[in-house]
Design a protein that fits this description.
The protein has 347 residues and is of the alpha/beta class. The termini are far apart. It is built from 13 helices and 7 strands.
Length: 347
């Protein structure tokens, strides 16, 4: 199998000491305000639903839904499944649900012992169970959310049928993907005509683009601004996962090429604080490879509705080709019949 076709984990390969450090930080993050964190996820997903309705004029209910890179918690997949949708996930990491020793063995072989340690530790402390129960409570569900379908596949090679989903989404996963351009094209391919795609990603050039747990946890005073982009500070940064390191402007180029006509909304929640810092560093000769806009953009929200006309045109062409073939066959048959009944043939 070529490198292009291999499954690659989002997780970084790190030492046992680094893994334990990441584990402690993750536990601290998850234990702080679990209820408010789940409520924030639900609020975000409801906001996405509202935006999708604006773009497509339809609710994300009783739809075929694909989650690209759902992650270990499966929070968003659970939410959309509870809304009456048929939801499938695609992730390069093995996702273990419930008691599954074989799943952990497969995870160790595929994603490494670091991922096993994080997942087993999280589950043994009841973190996943607490998230799921809180989600069920917020949604008013009487029955537990059933086991979900997640395929271990690359985002750029899902092996799913073309045009088979009404809604394709990805929340903060595309910056981990090794083949981002191909993944965008794949998302467009599996989306049905008239369906909607939504992508939320964090460009590497943003203030939290390194995904250092300290920055994600709000401990900004422990690192210099954009430390991951500045050579003199880069050695202090601990990236928590593989990153493709694309800037906001590079993402916009790829997205407009793979999803023509898509709407891209940059989010810049700290622009008033970050813009003067970026301009000051530019004045000192630092970060000149990146625009101020790249540096202050924390996320890109992408909406795209797949054109119906393009699909209809392709269908019409296919239908016309079939009709022409049938007509030619009929002409050939008529000629054969006329010849068979001719005096020469009856001779």
């Amino acid at each position: 199998m070529s490198d292009h076709g291999k499954l690659r984990s989002y997780s970084t390969s790190s030492s046992v000491q680094a893994t334990l450090g990441q584990w402690r930080n993750l536990i601290r993050l998850h234990r702080q305000g679990l209820t408010s964190r789940v409520a924030a996820v639900v609020a975000e997903l409801r906001g996405i639903e509202a935006d999708v309705q604006d773009h497509a004029g339809a609710k994300v209910e009783d739809c075929r839904v694909l989650d690209i890179g759902p992650g270990q918690h499966l929070m968003q997949m659970s939410y959309f499944a509870a809304r009456g949708n048929h939801v499938i996930g695609v992730d390069r990491d093995v996702i273990v649900q419930g008691f599954d020793p074989a799943g952990y063995w497969h995870m160790a072989r595929s994603n490494g012992l670091g991922r096993v340690a994080k997942t087993a530790g999280r589950k043994s402390l009841g973190i996943d169970r607490s998230y799921r129960r809180e989600l069920e409570r917020l949604l008013g569900l009487r029955e537990p959310i059933p086991r979900l379908t997640v395929h271990q596949r690359n985002a750029w090679d899902t092996r799913l049928q073309a045009g088979s989903f009404d809604f394709v989404y990805s929340l903060r996963a595309f910056m981990h993907i090794h083949e981002p351009a191909a993944a965008i094209e794949e998302a467009a391919r599996v989306l049905a005509p008239g369906g909607v795609a939504f992508i939320d990603l964090m460009p590497y050039t943003g203030p939290n683009g390194s995904l250092d747990i300290r920055m994600l946890g709000g401990r900004h005073d422990e690192l210099a601004p954009w430390a991951h982009l500045r050579p003199q500070h880069r050695h202090l940064v601990r990236e928590s996962a593989h990153l493709n390191r694309l800037s906001a402007s590079e993402w916009q180029t790829l997205l407009t090429r793979g999803m023509p006509g898509c709407t891209i909304r940059p989010t810049k929640p700290s622009v008033d604080r970050l813009q003067p810092l970026a301009e000051e560093l530019h004045g000192q000769g630092e970060l000149l490879d990146f625009s101020v806009d790249d540096l202050v953009t924390t996320n890109l929200h992408v909406f795209w509705r797949k054109p119906i006309a393009r699909a209809c045109t392709a269908l019409m062409r296919s239908t016309l080709a079939v009709l022409i073939s049938v007509a030619n066959a009929c002409d050939s048959l008529a000629e054969w019949v006329n010849f068979s009944l001719s005096p020469l043939a009856l001779g």
